[in-house]
Amino acid sequence: MGKIKAEAKGARPFPLGTRVENGRVYVSFVSELEGTARLHLYRRGRGRETGVFVFPEACRLGDIRYMTLTGFDPAVFEYSLSVDGCPVPDKCAAVVTGREKWGEPGGPVRYGFLREGFDWEGDRAPGYTFADTVIYRLHVRGFTKHPSSGVKNKGTFAGIIEKIPYLKSLGITMAELMMPDEFVEAAGDGKLNYWGYGPACCFAPKASYCVKGGREQSPDIQFKELIKAFHKNGIEVAVELYFGPDMSTSLQLACLGHWAQEYHVDGIHISGNFDSRAAATDPALAKVKLFAGDFCGGEWGGKRHLACYRDDFLTDMRRLLKGDEDMLQSAAYQMRENGGTLGKVNFMANTNGFTMADMVSYDRKHNEANGENGRDGSDYNYSWNCGTEGPVRKKRILELRKKQLRNAWTLLLTAQGMPLILAGDEWGNSQDGNNNAYCQDNPTGWVNWKGGKFGEDIFRFASYMLRFRKVHPMLHKEGGLRGMDYLGVGSPDFSVHGESPWYPQYEAYRRQLGFYYSGKFAGDADLYLMLNMHWEPHTFSIPHTDGIWRLAVDTSKEAQNGIFEGTEPLEDQETFEMEARSVVILVSDGEKREEARK
Q1: Which residues, other chains included, contact 567 with Cβ-Cβ below 8 Å and sequence gap of 6+?
Q2: What angle do CA 20, 25, 29 make, to 5 degrees?
Q3: Are 357 and 429 contacting, i.e. CB atoms less than 8 angstroms apart?
Q4: Alpha helix (H) ranges present in 283-436?
Q5: Is 430 within 8 Å of 374 (Cβ atoms)?
Q6: Which of 25, 33, 73, 14 is nearest to 53 (CA)?
Q7: Burial of 288 (0-12, 13-18, 19+ CB in 10 A)
Q8: Cα-based distances in Å from 335 to 42, 406, 412, 420, 448
């Protein structure tokens, strides 16, 4: 190694952070402090400084200081920053050192350099449209930390790679990683900030989510390996990033662009305080799927890479499931709405709130383990315990809970918006009634891969419905549903019905509705979906179709786990007896009634 030199020649303020190109290290950082700015260089694993380098005064643009360094191997060095001897954080650091052990502050926080020359091996984004996207949301640590996960590298980026075959077989198209950046675990009250909402070096992948040891085990390398592995298996990756109120718009945009350019992420779920208009109109992000509640209802000039991410679907559909009054018009809206010029994310459960299994097992939250005397977590869960609070052995209640879960999965996966699955919900993962597990870095907050409350039934039904959605384009139609016959085929693409065809009844006391999807608008079969959320049976008259109706789903049938595959024609093509609290899907594949009788 030659003599390390700091230079102004060739230095550049953008992009913010550090970059290594052809042996030259470009450094750029932001600080509002006035005075002489210095970079302190250390060899990794040693405490004393190797050198101190002053940022030339000529290399300053507003609050941005920058310079270049040459003559050293950045892979074995780390750095810190100061202004007039006062340590300052690097808000744009791409690698953080000293935080390698989860839950412990470690030594002094220093920063590393991005590795040069990562081999992406021709990496290409899968490029799904919003219409074809199915999201699977997971906590990086909690997804594989439980002993039942069966992976070698539990709680790490590498552990997720081990689970990619499972995710691929499930049929999801995008993995959403909750806070994979270098957030601070210490919550200030003796608890762990397990979820990660709070102060962070939001440009850097989290060091404690990495496998330890080895020259190539830097967080940036391990995260790139994760993205590359997902893309090779045809799965996109979105990351959730939280911005605090003290982060400027320019830094937010730089951070979003950094994850898109450096790590090839396909989407970003933006949480916290951010400038939604700036993010929506930034040309550098025009090909990145951006998800946020702040995009809902905005006018963004038809930018289809933006998606609305809020819990209105959860609220409306949970209330429908539990039998609340006056929910039919809301249900019809949620089934048809795909966001228009925006994408729309639908979920029955998310990190904040009950899991799907707890949604049918608890009437009230049970957050005692959080140590806040029940003051934390929402009091509005829109849940129903089906007659008994918490775990039960009564067959009647267990079967009712399973039926309600089948109802929930059917609604989620037949609605037009992008379905989002919370990790573990596909087999009934429970948090024992805790609806705010923000500090539960333990089996409560981890996914229990063998702890489903309903055996294999819910997993088999959820998997079936994911396949059913994929093979029926009318359930995720590109461009959405118009509710009109714009092709002149004799029926609208989507229509709402009551117990009698073509006659929806929305009175507050009613809990029955039907949805007819005319397959001619997407080269699909005709579909008829009937909802009876009443606690009594109801008889539906079935709309006529060109072909014959076959039964694909009947959530009331416990013996068949609700699955019928659409193979046998209905004996009665005119009426259908709907059991209490059930959902039915009929399929007409175009075979003529006369032909079927022969």
Answers
A1: 550
A2: 105
A3: yes
A4: 312-321, 328-336, 356-359, 395-414
A5: no
A6: 25
A7: buried
A8: 58, 16, 9, 14, 31
Q: Which amino acid, residue 400?
A: L
Alpha-carbon distance 423 to 167, whole Å? 10
Residues with Cβ within 8 Å of 175's Cβ and at least 6 positions away in sequence, in order, are 135, 136, 138, 160, 167, 230, 235, 236, 237, 238
Q: How far is CA 557 from CA 206, 348, 514, in A?
A: 46, 22, 19
Which residue has 């995260």 as its token pair? Answer: 223
Beta strands in 170-258 (DSSP E): 174-178, 181-183, 200-205, 236-243
Token duo for residue 400: 């009712």
DSSP string covering 493-515: SEEEE-SSTT-----TT--EEEE
The one-letter amino acid code at 67 reads M
Comparing CA positions, the residue from 149, 142, 158 lying closest to residue 192 is: 142
Task: Residue count of the chain, please give it.
Answer: 598
Closest CA to 145 of 436, 437, 405: 437
Distance of CA 269 to the CA centre of its chain: 8
Please answer whether residues 527 and 586 qualify as being in contact, where contact means their C-beta atoms are separated by less than 8 angstroms.
yes
CA-based end-to-end distance of the chain = 86
Q: Residue 413's closest CA among 465, 483, 460? A: 465
Per-residue pLDDT of the chain (598 residues; tens, 9 = 90+): 468 999 998 899 999 999 998 889 999 999 999 999 999 999 987 778 889 999 998 999 999 999 999 999 998 899 999 999 999 999 999 999 988 899 877 667 899 999 888 999 999 999 999 999 999 999 999 999 999 999 999 999 999 999 999 999 999 999 999 999 999 987 667 789 999 999 999 999 999 999 987 545 789 999 999 999 999 999 999 999 999 999 999 999 999 999 999 999 999 999 999 999 999 999 999 999 999 999 987 777 667 899 999 999 999 999 999 999 999 999 999 999 998 889 999 999 999 999 999 999 999 999 999 999 989 999 999 999 999 999 999 999 999 999 999 999 999 999 999 999 999 999 999 999 999 999 999 999 999 998 766 779 999 999 999 999 999 999 999 999 999 999 999 999 999 999 999 999 999 999 999 999 999 999 999 999 999 999 999 999 999 998 999 999 999 999 999 999 888 899 999 999 999 999 999 999 866 544 444 4
Two tokens, residue 235: 């799965």
Total-model pTM: 0.96
For 257, other C-beta atoms within 10 Å of its C-beta total 17
| Residue 311 DSSP label | S
Report how far residue 128's alpha carbon sits from residue 138's, in angstroms, rounded to the nearest whole number: 20
- Burial string for 530-559 (b: 16+ CB within 10 Å, else e) reads bbbbbeeebebbbbebbbbbbbbbbbbbee
